[in-house]
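## retry 2 of 3
previous attempt timed out at serialization; input unchanged, resubmitting
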Amino acid sequence: MGHREDLLEGAKRCLLDKGFVRTTAREIVKESGTNLASIGYHYGSKDALLVEAFLALIEEMTGAFGQVPPGGGAGEVGSFERFQEIWEGVIRSFPESRALWMLNLEVVTQGERLAGVRDLLAKAQVEGRRGLASVFTGVAEGAVTDDVVEAEGRLYSVLLNGLLVQWLFDPETATGAEQLTEGMRRVMERAATRA
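## retry succeeded, writing output
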């Protein structure tokens, strides 16, 4: 790997270990085996590097949400079964990838202290919604239309953030995939009877 890739991998490890606020440029350099000047050369700033590392971590995880569970999935794209399977995968990731999800909450709760990072990540939210819409619709990310991102992507993002808070705060009483799916089914049935 070159310095750019080494920096990215080092930044990922630092983020998972220390978070945004506590990660320093020197720690990234130590972790990556590079030098301070290479951060500016390849990424422009430590914050830009950390944002790219954070987005790479999220993208890696989001890609796993849409994978068929062991033993094969029961549901077709767009079905309640598939909806539930994806949320089961998301929920499985909460304890498995707790450090990453805690990092996600750090960004939200420390936003005022991370002004530069916050601005960069705010722009990346659209792509996050696009990625979630892709997972649930089965449409390649590059082919997901803006109207789907703005409607369905936003819905999935809100659901994800709510579940995340519940599962990190109190996993014993947090909403499960089956409960979420049943709630969605009831809302849709009620809407259909009124249409």
